Each structure stands twice: as C-alpha cells, then as structure tokens.
Amino acid sequence: MTKAGKSLWLLFCVALIVLALAAPSFAADTATGQKINYDEDTTIHWLPNPNDSSERIILYCMNNTLHWPHSTSTLPDVPEYVEGYLTEKDFDSADEYRECIQQLEAILYAGYPYNGLHLYEIVSKGHQITEAEFNELLRAPDVIRSDFPDSIGNTQFTYANYEENMDRIQKFMGEVLALAKGGTTASGLTHGQITALPFYKAMNCISMSVGTASPLQWYDNIYSKGYFVTEKQAYTATKDAVWNLLYKYKIADNDLSDITSGELAETLVKEASSARLLQEKPSSDKVSVTGDAVFSYNPQDGKWHTGTLTVNEPATYRGTYTLDLPDGVTVENSSSGNTVTAGTSFALVSDKEITGTKEISLKSDSLVWIDELYQYSPARDVVASDGKRFQHMVGADIRRASVTTAFTVKTGEEGSLSVSKKVEGEDNPSGEFRFTVELLNQKISGKYGDLTFKIDDNSGNSTASFTLKSGESKTALHLPAGTKYKVTEAENEKYTSSAKNAEGTITAGQKSDVEFTNTRKYHDLTVSKVLSEPGDQKDREFTFVITLKNSDGNPVTETFNYEGETVSGQDEGVTAPKNGTLEFRDGSAEITLSHGQAIRLKDLPTGSLYTVEEKESEGYTPRYNGSKEAASGTLSKDAEVSVVNSAGTDPGKAEGKDDPGKNESGSDNGGKTAKKTSQKSGSSNPDTGDASGLVLWIAVLAGAGAGAAVLIRRKLSCPTDM
C-alpha cells in the first residue's frame, strides 16, 4: 500500500472511532422523546405508565447538582426525555450495578407514594403518638414470638401492662443487642432487620423510659418525625434517599453525602439494602387464615372468644387486611378496628353465642408490587445559561393490588350441668349442703352460669364448690361438650345421701341433671302433756312409758338425749323439764311430765318403731293425738305425741261435748304431730282427781243418819201429854 493509501486508511479509521463515540449522543438527540410532566401543587414529576396509560409513574431526579426537568421563567428550554441512563459500565462491577439498581427499586417501592414496606404513615400535620397507636406497635409479629420465646413468647404487651413486663422487655432488648456483633435469629433475622420493626421501636421506648419520660414521649422524640409524616415530607425523604444512594455509588453530579431531611430518608436507604420486594401481581390463592376459629365462652368477660388466628401469605405481600365481621364480633384487644396484619396473631370476640357457622371474609387493598424500573435521560444535550445540564430521572411501574380470602367460624359445642337438692323426712328443712363439681379433663376457670371454677393445684382439674338447700339447684352453663364431670356431696352426719347421674359427660346442646336426695339419719320424738282442766293439779306428775325398737323390730338398748320444753298456749306458770338423758333398757324407758311440759327426744334412728303410753292415773282418761289408743309409729320424720288428760268419764261420750282428745280442728291425728295448744273439757265441773271429797260426803250422810235415829228413839220413850 502506498503512503497516500495508508494515510487515507488511517483517516477512515479515525472517522469510524469518532462516529462510534458520538453514537449515544446522536441517538439521544434523534430518538423520539416525551415531555416530563410536572405538578406545581405537589412539585412531583411524572410520566404515563408505559404498561397502563391510566396510571402514573412518579419520577425522582438522579443528579442533585443538575437542573429539574420542568420549565421556569429563567429556564424555559427543557429537553424531552428518552429511556436509558445507568448501565454496568457506570460501575466497578456487574454486581455493584445490580446492587444499586435493586436498592433504587427498593427506595421507590418503600417510598412515596407506595409505602410498600409500611415504613411511615401519612398525617396532615405534626402528630404525637396516642396510646392506642402505641398498642398497635406492640403487637409482636409471629416471627419475633418464635425467635424470642423466653422474652416475648405468647406475652401480650400493652401500654397499660408494660411496667409489669419490664423484665421481659429488658431481656428482649439485651438479646437484640447481642445480634449487633453479627449473627441472626433462628428464622434468619439480622440486628438491622429487627431494629427497623415498629415493634422493636416501641419496646426500645419502653426500655428507655425507666425513671425518665414516658414511652410515648420517647417515641415522639425519637421516631415520630420519621414515621408520622406529611405527603410532602414523604416525597422529600424519598428524593433525598435516591440522591444519597447514588452518591454512595459515585454516580456523577451527586453530592448529597449527608441526609438532613429527616429520619425517614435514612430509614429508606437502610431498608433498601436488604428489602425483598414483591415482583409479581399478588394472588388471592396464596392467602389463607389458619388457627382455632372456634368460639368458646370466656367467663372473664362473659363473651365468646376464638383461639389464635393468623393470616398467612408470602413474606413479600406485607398485607393489612380488613375483616367483614358479623354484628357483635370484633378483633380482640385491637385499637385499629377490624384490621389485622399478616404474620401477627389475632383473635375474635363475640358479644353473643354464634349459632351455626359464619363465613368471615377479609380483604387487603394495599398490596404493592413492582414490575419494572425505568430510567430517563434528556433526549438532547441541553446546557443552561449557568452551564448546568438537566437531571436524569428514575421511576418504576409500581402498582397496588387487592387480595381476598375467607374462613369459617362457629361456636364450640356446649352443654350445661345442673345440680339439685331435695331433703326427705323434714317438713321445713333449712340446712345447707356442700357440693363439689369436678371437671376431669378440662382446665377452665371463672364463672360459668351459677358456678365459679378454679384449677385445683393438686389434681389439675377444674373444680367448683357451692352449697344448696332443699329445693334449690345451681347450673353451670357453656361447658365444652365432651367434658367429663363428677359431682360429690360433703358428708353430713345427720343425713344419708343418694345421687342420680352424679358422674357423666357433658353432651352438646343438652343439660345434664344431677339430683341429690338426702334423708335424715335421725329424727326427734316429742312427748307432751296437757290437762284439759288443770285446776290445782298443774304440778301433778304423770308417768309415760316409751318403747323403742330399731328398724328390724329389735328392742333398743341405748341412751338418748332430750330437751325440756313447754307446750305452746299451756305454759303459763309452767317450768320446762331440765335437759337430760333417757336410758332405754330392752326397748323401754319411763319419764314423768306434768301439765304443760314436754320433752324432745333427740336423734332417734330413722325407721325406729316407737310407742308412747301413759300409766293409768285414777280419775283421768288420756287421749294420744286425739286417740284413745297408745300412740305408735315409725320415725320417717320428726314426730310428736300430744297426750291430753280429761277428768272423769270419757268426754268423747258426753252428748254435745267436744272431744278433748282431738285437736282444735276436731281431726284425729293418730301418730302424727299434734298442735301444741290448750285443750278444753266439755264438763263444767272439773274432777280434781282427789277422793277426799267422797269421804267427806259419806261422813256427812252417816252423821245425819245417826242424828235422826237419836231423835226417833227419844220420841218413842217420852209419855204422851194428852
């Protein structure tokens, strides 16, 4: 090749090199661009979403030292923009490029307006956290409960109980601090991931409040400005986070080395380094509710509670769900109404018993997912009068999606248990009897209907103790079906007890009736004495023979106590016999009583056969409860023998006269208890019971006869005076 040829060849190669170097700028200058839209009210830049023109892509600037891509009075010439900016060539390695792009996506995903990681809450103005909001922060995620079983576990933390749980809180803070040196929890959480959680922030405020300000004040001082933000503050924090990230990766025209706009921007940068994003449209098929959806009666508040429930979803969903609840059903211990967060356990509470089954649906409208990142550069190289160019822009196709699911709740099968008491052998029983209900395979405590249960320290079973009188009953309500029960009555020395259905199993929808019948082991026998017309014979004593046989008919040889009494209505001037004992020998014993006196023979065995008879008293005829026959009977309850004596002949045979052996109603009581009232004789001339009157009349008659004989004799012996 000639020298001229070589020169031409060299010139051609240089031209190719120049063209190659100028190609990107040429393409940008000639590509079809689009104008960046600018909202003057919000100062936000945006472009229509390439995948859905009805949606916007919010744009953030990528070079804080360059001009914004909107026209001003001093900067009217703003270029249009085309896609493209950073590539692997702008970084030291392909890995570094991927890291930067992933973190850019995460900042946009978590920042304004999408809040995909729930790092902030939009408020209209400055906000101080409330106790209710603080309680929501204290709802520990399930992963924290499982990773810290000793300090957190199943404990429910609230602002009201934080002081009593301070030891657990301090232990948790120490466990988290130990992770700062490296390492992860059992589930793989790092120190940074834990400290970014709202739960940790609330616990940290409680930990620092000891002896100082309240946890709420600490939260306002440390976190509120980074969590409760206005829309403008959220936008500014996102913008600063983008600039700060690109500065760290040494992207040209960025000098924001320190963030001064607030804690949220710092949080966005920090979270972007490890956040996992939802990169596909969420599906309802991947959401479910698991746990114990059966309502059980809770005696502490008289309401029905489910067991623990959890919304399950992929970790990247981060859903907050609104439940469509039946009337009277709420989320237990929730200050956020009927919303729950996936991964955080909850329970439902109902004011009334749920009948049948109910389907509860829940929906989340806040699931955020990212499809694609977009970068934009000026379509032509425009240099402003101050020598500055225009910023590159970044945005992403980030959307919100809804998912729904449902689950079924019902009330657990329940039954009831009723215990009743009946006493036989007493007319008006008033004694109390003590019972114990033991639930053999249940650990429940509190008030269930009429009964209050507690867990026995020794057996571990649930027990309830109570007393009943005859005719009373008590019922335990809302007992779980299948519960085995045992009812026992405390031993009572005065009664024998029989029971029906004292052991069994609670049946769903039914009442188990347990009936206890008590029969007196012993009864009292009262013997009283009344003279129908006592006159001056009130103190005269009458002897009674009482015979006693046991229920087998064998004579009783035993000593029994008795109490002395007086007869109602006949007690004027009457002294009750002193209390004492009566000894039966070969089934017989004697005792003396005078008018208006009585004895109550105590505690004779039930079924004893008795006879009461008064020894013969001259001039008196006894009636036994209105009968001429000696009183006898079998003791099935307390008995009384009222003996009424009348003078002379049997007043029951006197025409038109009342029978003093009958009670005031005229009925014959036989061996039954007689009313202790005064008995009146039909005779107006009382027989005093004293024979000296008859002797006097005989003497008078004898004297009169003797006098008459003397007079006759004298008459016959005197001469006649004619």
TrEMBL record:
Q: Where is the composition biased (Basic and acidic residues)?
A: 652-662
State which residue ranges cross the membrane: 694-712
Keywords of this protein's UniProt record, alphabetized? Membrane, Signal, Transmembrane, Transmembrane helix
Organism (species): Hornefia porci
Looking at the record, which segments are called Disordered?
A: 613-689
Residues in DUF7601 domain copies: 415-520, 523-646
What range does the record give for the signal peptide?
1-27
Instruction: State the name under which the record lists this protein.
Output: DUF7601 domain-containing protein
Q: Which InterPro entries match?
A: DUF7601
